[in-house]
What does this fold into?
Amino acid sequence: MKQETILHSPTLESVIMVEKTIQEHSQQCGKYQLWKKLPRKMMYQTFQVILDYLEESGKIIIDKDGCIIWTYNPERIKRIISEGLIAK
It folds into this structure.
């Protein structure tokens, strides 16, 4: 995450709302279009902070065209680990 002064930290409710919206519209749109699809209004700066967090935590990737893709899949991770994958 970039070292910037954050004037307002997002709430857990806001992060969950953005996560659900990304899951519903994964691979369909970029940042601005996704921001417009949120069920409730949110400052764009707060939205950017949430996207930075989700990207740093490995839940999303943003491709070269700016398309946001949801990558987090805990069920698949559990299955792979149970099949004997050694994670470091």
